[in-house]
Amino acid sequence: MSSFHLYDIQRKSGLFVRKFGSNDSIDLQENNPDADDLAASIWDYENKQLYVYPSDSGEVMYVSSDSTSDTTVLITINGLDENFEEKNQTITLTGTTPIQLDGLWTRIQRAFNSGASDLAGNVYIYTTGEETDGVPDDPANVKGHIENQHQQTRQAFYTVPKGKQFNVSGYHVSCDAKTSNSDVNLTVAFQVRFFGGVFRTQEIIAVSNKAPSIIKVDMPFPLPQKTDVRPIIINSSANGIKVHCVFEGILL
What we know:
The protein has 1 helix and 18 strands. With 252 residues, it is mainly beta. The chain has 2 domains: 3-50 and 158-251, Jelly Rolls (Sandwich); 62-146, no CATH class. The strands form 5 sheets. Strands 2, 12, 14, 15 and 17 form a 5-stranded antiparallel β-sheet that branches. Mean pLDDT is 88; it is low at 30-36.
């Protein structure tokens, strides 16, 4: 199916979804004896961790900054409620003091600065737990993270809302060495998890800093409601690699 046909379908009946994320310091060196037991999500928080999803029954979420100066910044959170239906809320930060969001959330899809003032600090969206000066004490409780230099989340994972079908049309993965121009490479697994199941790998992607991977799907890959989609890094040739990922598709 050509790009023209994809965009024509989107224009008439669907919503184009584009997800992107970066991990600025992959640390899954292939000569690490424990490397086979490690994997990392492609997002901008906790460089050596798989993202921990909220409960499928929903959880209470909190938002805070690590700067006391962030008291007038508007933050918009896009996610899914306890029924996996789309949910949005905009709040005004109160510095390092946590704000409780309305209701329950099963997923945090995206968050961004929707105001007119830049963030002074970094923003955390997290479940119940201890925090110190606006920063959650347990990294596993963090479900969304905004770095002030980017003003929005960078997380390459997505969950299909209730009553929708996500048709993956393409993805892109690239990497570069963090501190030098040496050759580096890594391995990415593109995974999906149908509701109530486990993550299953759909494709293995090998990437180097000299050869990014750009894949266009001629026939869009359909994923039903409540499916989790994630590319994860499962191996790297060196420590400190930066990785960048984009995937996109049509929500019908």
